[in-house]
Amino acid sequence: MAGTLLNKKIGIIGGGVTGVITAIFLAKSGCSVTIFEKKELLSETSSRTTKLLHGGIRYLESFQIKEVKNGLNDRYWWLKNFPNNTKKIEILIPFKSFFSTQFLKYFIGIKLYQLLSFKKSLGKGRLISKTTKSNIFTNTNYENFLTFFDGAMDDKSLSKKLKDELKMLEVDIYENYEICNFNVAGQIDKFNFDQIVLAAGPWTKILLEKNNIESDKEIDFIKGSHLVINKSIETGFMFDGICKTRYIFALPYGKKTLLGTTEKRVDNPENPKIESEEKDYLINSYNSFFNDRITQEDVISSFSGVRPLIKSLDKDFHRSTRDFYLQKNKKLIAIFGGKWTTAPSTAKKIVTIIENEEVS
Ligand SMILES: Cc1cc2nc3c(=O)[nH]c(=O)nc-3n(C[C@H](O)[C@H](O)[C@H](O)COP(=O)(O)OP(=O)(O)OC[C@H]3O[C@@H](n4cnc5c(N)ncnc54)[C@H](O)[C@@H]3O)c2cc1C
C-alpha cells in the first residue's frame, strides 16, 4: 500500500476513530493528511463504546450477514495489529432449556458467527450446563450457557497508540478547531485540498446540510448509555434486557463491570447524558439476571454516546444496519454510520476510491 498516492493533499473533518484510521491509511499510502477536530481526537462517540471489537452476533437476527462478516474481518485486524491494547474475551449467553427455540437460535447463531469468521476465528465456544457451572452467579432461571469469543479493547491505551501513530506519520492535527465551511471543490475554511473526507460521525449529515450539500441518507440518532458498576466479573455476559427487545452486555472493565447499553431515539447528537429511566432499566436488567443485586450505590459512573444509524424502511431502529455508507460529491467523500470495529474497512474503501480517481 505504501506510497501509491504520493503527494495528494487530503483534509479530514472529524477526529473520531473513523477519521483517525482513515488518516493513518492515507498517510501510509503517501498522502499528506490534515485532520480538523472540533474537540480532542477520539473524545466523542469513539470514547463511549461498549469496547467490543466485533462482528455483532446479534445482527445475525436481522440477517446482516455481509456486515457481520465484514466486522469479523476487521476484528481480526485490530487484534493482530494492536495485541497490547486488545484481547479476546469469552462471552456467555444464557438459555433456559435445551428443548427451546431459544437454545436452537443461539446454537445456530454462534455456529454461524464462528463460520463467518472462518480462518480469523478466535476459538470455538462451549456449553456450560447447570451441573458444570462454577463461579457464575446468575439467578436460577439462567443456569445453562452457550459461549462464543469476541474482541475487546482498552480504548484509552489504544487511542494513545493511534495518536502516536498519527504523529509518526506526520499527519497535521488541528484540535479544538471547529470547521463550519467546506465545499465539494476541496476547500475547508481557508485551506485547499485534493480531496476532503467528512468523518464527523453523528454530525456528518448536519454539516453537509449546513454547507448546502444534499445528503444521500436520512439518519436516526440513537443514544446508548452504559453504567460502570463497582463489581468485578471474570467473563462477559450477553443477556436479554427486561424489555426483551435488545440484549445487554455485562463485561469485565478492569476490576469493574461495564453494563450497557440502552437504545433511545434523540433529536440531536449534542452532549448525550444518561437519563434516570435508562439507569433504572440497566440496574433492573442486571438484577433480573445476576444473583448479587445492585443498587444506585454500586454505580461508579456512566457515559452515553449517539449512534448515527442509517434510517431503514423498517420502523424498528433496533434492526437498522450498522454498516457504513460513503457519499461522493466531486472532491468530497462523506462517511455515514459504521462501527469502531469497521473503521479499517471504511478507510480501505476510501483509499481505493482516491486511488481509482488518480488513475481515471
Ligand atoms: C453506545 C454505543 C456503543 C457502541 N459500542 C461499540 C462497540 O462496542 N464496538 C464498536 O465497534 N462500535 C461501537 N459503537 C459505534 C462506534 O462508537 C462508532 O461507530 C464510532 O465511534 C464512530 O466513530 P466516528 O469517528 O465516525 O465518530 P465520532 O467518534 O463521533 O467522531 C466524529 C468527530 O467529528 C468531530 N466533529 C464534529 N463536527 C465537527 C466540526 N464541525 N469540525 C471538526 N470536527 C467535528 C467530533 O468532535 C468527533 O470527534 C458504539 C456506539 C455507541 C453510541
What does this structure look like?
The protein is globular. The longest helix is centred in the N-terminal third of the chain and has 17 residues, at 65-81. The chain has helices spanning 17-28, 65-81, 101-117, 155-168, 204-210, 276-289, 343-359; strands at residues 9-13, 32-36, 52-53, 86-95, 127-128, 144-153, 172-174, 187-188, 191-192, 195-198, 219-229, 236-240, 247-253, 256-260, 264-266, 299-310, 324-329, 332-337. Helix 1 (17-28) packs parallel to helix 4 (155-168) and helix 1 crosses helix 7 (343-359). It is an alpha/beta fold and 360 residues long. The strands form three sheets. Strands 3, 4, 5, 6, 11, 12, 13, 14, 15 and 16 form a ten-stranded mixed sheet that branches. A six-stranded mixed sheet has the order 7-2-1-10-18-17, with helices on both faces. The chain folds into three domains: 1-49 and 154-218 and 314-360, FAD/NAD(P)-binding domain (3-Layer(bba) Sandwich); 52-153, no CATH class; 219-310, 2-Layer Sandwich (D-Amino Acid Oxidase, Chain A, domain 2). It has seven helices and 18 strands. Bound molecules: flavin-adenine dinucleotide. Flavin-adenine dinucleotide binds at residues 13-19, 36-39, 43-46, 48-52, 178-179, 199-203, 207, 224, 261, 305-307, 338-341.
